[in-house]
Amino acid sequence: MHNANRALASAVAVLGLCAHGSAHAEQFNVPPGPLGAVAAAVGSRAGVTLTVADPDLAARGSPGVRGNYSLRQAVARILKGTGGEAIFYDRLTVRIVRRRAPPPAPPRAPKEPPAPPEAQATPDIIVTATKQTMLLQHYPGSAMVIDLDDDWLARNASGGTIALRNLLPTLGSTNLGPSRNKLFLRGIADSSFNGPTQATVGQFLGDVRLTYNAPDPNLNLYDMKRVEILNGPQGTLHGAGSLGGIIRLVPNEPDAGAAYGTAAASVSTTEKGGIGGDGAVMVNLPIVDGRSALRIIGYAEQEAGYIDAPLRGLRNINSTSVYGVRVALGIETESGWKIDAGSVIQNTLTRDGQYTLRQDPPLTRNNAFAQPFRNDYRLGYITVRRDIGEGELVSTTALVRHELESVFDATGYDGTGNIARFEERNGILLFSHETRLSGGGREAPWVVGASAVYTVNGLSRLLGPPSTQRPITGVVNEQTETALFGQFSRPLTTNLTGTLGMRLTYAHSVGHLVSGAGEGPDKLGRKQLRRSSTIAIEWHPDERLSLYYHYQQGYRAGGLAIAPAGAAMGSQRFAADDLDLNEIGFRLNDRQHRFSARAALFVAGWGDIQADLVDQTGLPYTANIGNGRIVGLEAEVSWRPISEVTISAAAFTNRSRLISPAPAFVRPERQPLPNVAEDGGRIAANWRKEIRPGASLGGEISLRYVGESRLGVGPLLDFRQGGYTIADAGARLDLGSIGLSLNIANLTDVRGNSFAFGNPFTLTQGNQITPVRPRSIRFGIDARF
Predict the structure, then answer these.
(1) Nearest CA to 95 among 50, 127, 134?
(2) Alpha-carbon distance 440 to 431, whole Å?
């Protein structure tokens, strides 16, 4: 799936790189003809790289375009009736692929034979998460661009980020359940628990920041176009909270060229568990032909539970319900402005925890009452962009409202056997804005900009008998960050490029405790001026090989937290932490694009590590646990022995250590950082074959190894987890307007402990495990209309 871009057999139009831009009006006079030839003429007139993704599509008849139009408008017109859609990677690179919901094919114009394979060009891959026109092959750092094709989406879209985690060994997470997990990249992991600290992985939907100090919302991936991952830290371009890197989801844009839609539904079953299912629909509606359109995606999922509570007479108690809507409006004005506005709503409810106890029968757990989790996520955003000379101006503003609620069985926390319930409510408001100007083309890309983030996080807690819970101390933290940033790349010689970048951030933090009677006496205010820098060198002796060195910094702001039980004070501050990383790596591609490889070796130093923890009674608190060091090696290879088959493998090894720990976390033996396995890997085989005109069969089988890790640092959290291998398989029959898919997760029904935590109040007993989901089978159908 993610190597499909290397296997494109395309008719191409490769045109000059002088940027007129997508919003700049041109006078086009291109007659009807094969789409490949028409696209070549349009691209030549606009001065961009325009590629058609396969020879069959390139041979279809296009109506051409005549008149004064922007590039986007012109492309929309030449695609009418062809069944193609355009992917605008940036203002210089456009790729035309088969539309996921093509109209009935019109009569074709006489075919012009496509160029032979050795003469065909492969579209350049642009890493748009860099906020510049930067080629993946020449990016001086570790990055992955995953094109989400129809086959993979049909089988995995409802899984959200969890599906990406199963695809990428270097992407790790906790396993508390959907929409409550913490994500980690390349071994940069702070703790297992959710609290006021900022995430180590930045998450974005297009240009919009999704979270600040909240767990992964696990957005459904239906109708997503691709995913871009930049390993971290990414402090220069993306600011605080990107120590491990960033994950950028790129949705399909509203299409003003045609009205169409897609729909999908499935039914699934989990061995020793329940029945589940999911469904989704997308409708694309042009409003003004060639200028504006509305795209609406709605989805729902019922994920089957597989844990029973015999004493309560309940089965499959850990089922999860998800429903959501994404709306996007795209407008292109006559004056050249492109406006994108939209919203995301997603609600997740898990009815009970998905952990078990070692002494109980497999896949059972008995508690006095349910321990549900709720995550309600709301996002609204607007992005405007326009070409300014040879540069592009982009301005994005977003508002997030995030509400989380967790319930735990706290029986015994006070030394008695009395039934007790703990309830934690976390309300987060996040405002973010960024305005940037980029340019320089591919040879010398640059970007400068300014950003602002304001977030307020209120944590309230209830504890006591279920019928008479009382408020206990909570905390409110406010963070305001404003920043100026810039990054510049310049050719130093013909084959050597240097990159410099810096971000200056002014951060203001205010925190105070909240008791049942209102605001408490403890209050903290702090102001800081932070700098995050990047230096990189990239050498490409030819277009097949690229070698690089990369140095980058990142940080997270500090705040106020509730002190652990037994502390003299009710509150304690946690300081900002920072991470410096040195990395060397390479990328290699052969001329036929049948083989590719990349690898990176890095060393990271992490100072004053922030961690959300639990004390001996089970109540959460936050502290700086000491300094850390991480040494890692990651590698990935892909090989296409024949046109229908791709074999890929990825693996990593990490060696981390907590050094100079804070007094409460001192131990005589070596302590690795939590939750990231020392080793992991994945090998997969993908195939796709046309079985008759208009119909094809594709599939994948994979083997994924999750190495052993530890739950946390310090004697209280020294529990082992991981150390198992999972096989998955799936297939999809594409019949044109209808697709049928089958997915089998955990093919051999392996049992393993994916995560050694479910309830903080009984954690010290050392008997909690989070079992791997048993074998699950999913049958789906998808349609285009």
Answers:
(1) 50
(2) 30
Residue 522: is its pLDDT beyond 70?
A: no
The answer to whether residues 166 and 297 belong to one domain is no
- Res. 106 pLDDT band, cuts 50 70 90: very low
Label the pairing between strands 49-52 and 577-589. unpaired
Give the number of domains in the chain. Answer: 3
Max CA separation in the chain (angstroms): 84
Q: How far is CA 524 from the centre of its chain?
A: 33
Question: By mean pLDDT, which of 76-80, 359-363, 417-421 is the weakest?
Answer: 76-80
- Give the model's pLDDT for residue 118: 35
State the Cα–Cα distance between residues 446 and 483, nearest whole angstrom: 17
Strand order in the sheet with 753-755: 356-357, 768-771, 753-755
Sort strands 201-205 and 245-251 into parallel, antiparallel or unpaired.
Answer: parallel
Query: Are 471 and 592 within one domain?
Result: yes
Alpha-helical (H) ranges within 673-772 are: none
> Which structural domain, as residue segments, surrounds residue 153?
136-247
Tell me, yes or no, whether 568 and 424 share the same domain: yes
Amino acid at 97: V
Residue 645 tokens read as 């088959």
> What phi and psi values does residue 686 have, to the nearest 5 degrees?
-115, 145
3-state secondary structure of 158: helix
Q: Do 403 and 470 share a domain, yes or no?
A: yes
Residue pLDDT, tens place only, 651-673: 999 999 999 899 888 888 888 99
Verify that 475 and 526 share a domain, yes or no. yes
- The CB-side HSE value for 389 (13 A sphere, CA atoms) comes to 6
113: domain CATH number?
3.55.50.30
Helix axes 35-46, 71-78, angle to 10 degrees: 170
Domain boundary among 74, 101, 123: 123
Rounded CA separation 453/467 (Å): 40
Structure tokens at 72: 């986007």
Burial of 404 (0-12, 13-18, 19+ CB in 10 A): buried
pTM equals: 0.86
Whether 254 and 240 map to the same domain: the answer is: no
Q: Is residue 414 part of a domain?
A: yes
DSSP codes of every residue in 651-694? EEEEEEEEES--GGG--SS--PPTT--SEEEEEEEEEEEEEETT
Nearest to 779 by CA among 415, 385, 278: 278
Closest CA to 652 of 101, 86, 184, 339: 184
128 inside domain: no
526-547: pLDDT as tens digits: 888 999 999 999 999 988 999 9
279 and 242 share a domain? no
Phi/psi zone of residue 566: left (φ > 0), alpha (ψ -120 to 50 degrees), beta?
Answer: left
Q: Give the domain-ending residue among 190, 218, 247.
A: 247
Q: Do both 292 and 210 map to the same domain?
A: no
